[in-house]
């Protein structure tokens, strides 16, 4: 089926940035917040690799992950043109779409506190004109038209291909340009490892200093759910006041993370598609029902609360499913579901469960660190030791000193979980066109 | 909304035709103008940046006067013009008109610039400059050899089977040229680049010859020797059209591949291979850049390169030409470049001239009379002429300075009075191009902003104030109305019935004299009527060898790194770099250095260093570039010294061997850790 598409010819683009300027002028975007970007492969010009560019904005994907994952239903597809349109008035500024999109198309504007992005110049193309970026390209390297786009158009090395049917045809570099032929009798070989040391470090899109509120929030979810479950099975008291205080703090932590706090209610509009909506909805339901359970002392409400609680744990882990981790493992020891099981096991004082979960978490943790070490990535051995101690010390104490105050044990366990969860964010990143293009071997 | 045809008047190959979108008397967009076959897809990023440039809050909109504390204060036009009039009268009466320096450069092209010259003639003359910062060594080399500077239409390039791009980087400096290159490649053409740097243009090439900077002539002579030795020359073309081939053949004998490989630092096998390509693939278009002739040996180097096109018969054919400068659209000039750059070619009142390459030194040394007042328009000599510190000293030595400017440039900061300059949208003018063949109208699309007055009006008012002869004023200087300006322009068009202002208002036009493939008739306007590989005039005019030759650059001991200052896609000389839309891509000047050169001094990527030589010093951030030869460092042209590092802080005032050009690249520097 033919659809409106960008057509980008790698052989014609010289990285002049006119498309970026053309877009920013037409759409009056803020300086430095460009909807279209031109990324360069091998900018440092290693002699054995070609230098080339990709000019990319929103690709108006058929399976648009921004739209699918937006909790607030701020994205729609324009039926006539196929453009994915972001609606400023509906956006809550949670930035979740900036994680979901592998093309780095949605941009968070710190001054408006919401997202903005390329709209395919929907007004222009509806009028039969070309998008501003295409109009601005002085070489015809970027063009636009009704095209048959298929998987083959996206197999170019360096292009992010996630099978989400982006509306772009990518014409790859001709074979003859794939390996530069440079005559220079004074040239000195530079190996790729050395080259890596020359390159400026790329910023990770998920950084611990920005995401610490999420570390605490997700652990609070695990803590509260395990506590409620233990309470339901009569393993521990749950007084209303401490529960209410922790709940309010957890909600405050999430709100810190979004741009438009007064629109927070929109968080739960996309239960159909967004794990983030599901997370917030099920956690809110869990909090409300748990409160009711405490006040009414009704067990049935307690069971309902537990179901929502467990669903919120699954949702939290699902929210992070498209992050790119440095290790290749499907499970991470810092997943909140595992944290909740760990805490529950201890509160419920179930030796079998404690042994199982400690073993699972420890092996997952060591497995992951081994994998980082093999890739010659920093794996922070001292932090790792501390993290493992926070798992094994309570385990040992469980046998040596079974009468030890649960509060101390939980505090030590929590310390370990904070480390593990923090490392999860530290080791995670979002794939972007810039990173995909940085260097190809 | 209006969409008005216009053209970009910057000193740039492309000279794009554009359509200017105007809404409520504000420029809101720049769109492509498809009628220009050389620039059909529209302008580069700088062309788009006009939207900001025209509306910038930093633009100078009112006359300014420098106060005692060094700050500038808005004054009235009356005060500004009265002060200037008093100064002019005083200079003329006490020291004679030649105590005034009239300095104009290439900031805005157009026929109306002739009004400035007329004013200064009427004033009784002034000291002016000769020579040019850009391209005269190459122009003169081609003029000596072929008699004129013209080449095939830009779109003819797609017919070439071999394209040799020598020291030019069109991807950044003439972006639309990449289109016919790509078309030729799609049709199977070979594309070779010769350049000390790996550039965005060389990425498109089949091979890059990364020669040692300044040794291009040796490579050309070595290639010529191989081509002659293997009998790949065009005997018929040479016999009919070339003077001095036998002497040239003798000359190149010394340039064996072994020797050339040693000099240029490329392998012998690759030289032989390139010679075979040039000798056997036809048609070939050879595209030399302007950078390569900005060395002391630039003229001779260009003559050596041109010889390759000549001996292989790649002149005056479809897909074959010497693609250096195409002055075909300069139909209104009585005297074309480069001859118009030579001292003594103009009106007698301008006979007192100083070298543009040695501006600082000459200004400081000139006597009888010394320079008392300096007038600058369309130029930024403090950034763009060599040896910034000497120029600043010379400017400060004068008593009074007037600068006509749109922005607070390095030069504007030296002014006692700044007059707000028009931009390209505020007055119509006719422009040519040195690449595409069109005559174009840069059209007025809106009234001048603030209190801006075009130079023609400034001169008109000054002429009145100075009490110049009314009849002469009305003959030489158009009145400040749109009708008078159009009448002035129409007078030029009288001789060209095919060109009318009404047609020019619609889009680019071709003059009847336009030849798609010049020299196809094998008529060469040289003394002999032939292509002169052996040029008597080269010797009599410039004192160089009548034959092309490789003249090595001087050996360096004090400063080990050769600084080259090529143009960037982000600026035209010192224009555009101050705009936010440009600064987001190049926020500051960077010195590009090979990592191994930097590591030898313990310098890391992106680290600030001191860049210095005997002329100046500056602090600048290093950026690693594996696309450089070791020993070369690059600081792109056009940075302003007020912002830190600028190349001319380090250049010496030195002319090229011929043509009174400027040897910017004869510059050596060193860096050290801060």
UniProtKB/TrEMBL annotation, chain A:
Key words of the record: 4Fe-4S, Iron, Iron-sulfur, Membrane, Metal-binding, Transmembrane, Transmembrane helix
Organism: Ancylomarina euxinus
Name this protein carries in UniProt: 4Fe-4S ferredoxin-type domain-containing protein
Pfam families, per the entry: Fer4_11
Matches recorded under InterPro entries: 4Fe4S_Fe-S-bd (IPR017896), 4Fe4S_Fe_S_CS (IPR017900), ET_IronSulfur_Cluster-Binding (IPR050954)
Molecular function, one GO term: metal ion binding
All residue ranges annotated as the 4Fe-4S ferredoxin-type domain in the record: 4-34, 82-111
Transmembrane segments: 212-234, 240-259, 302-323, 335-359, 379-400
Superkingdom of the organism of origin: Bacteria
Automatic annotation (TrEMBL), chain B:
Short name of one Pfam family: Molydop_binding
GO molecular function terms attached to this record: iron-sulfur cluster binding; metal ion binding; molybdopterin cofactor binding; oxidoreductase activity
Domain 4Fe-4S Mo/W bis-MGD-type: 1-58
Keyword Transport (UniProt): no
Keyword Iron-sulfur carried by entry: yes
Keywords on record: Iron, Iron-sulfur, Metal-binding
Record InterPro entries: Asp_de-COase-like_dom_sf, MoPterin_dinucl-bd_dom, Mopterin_OxRdtase, Mopterin_OxRdtase_4Fe-4S_dom, Prok_Mopterin_Oxidored
Family classification: Belongs to the prokaryotic molybdopterin-containing oxidoreductase family.
PANTHER family: OXIDOREDUCTASE YYAE-RELATED, TRIMETHYLAMINE-N-OXIDE REDUCTASE
Name by which UniProt lists this protein: 4Fe-4S Mo/W bis-MGD-type domain-containing protein
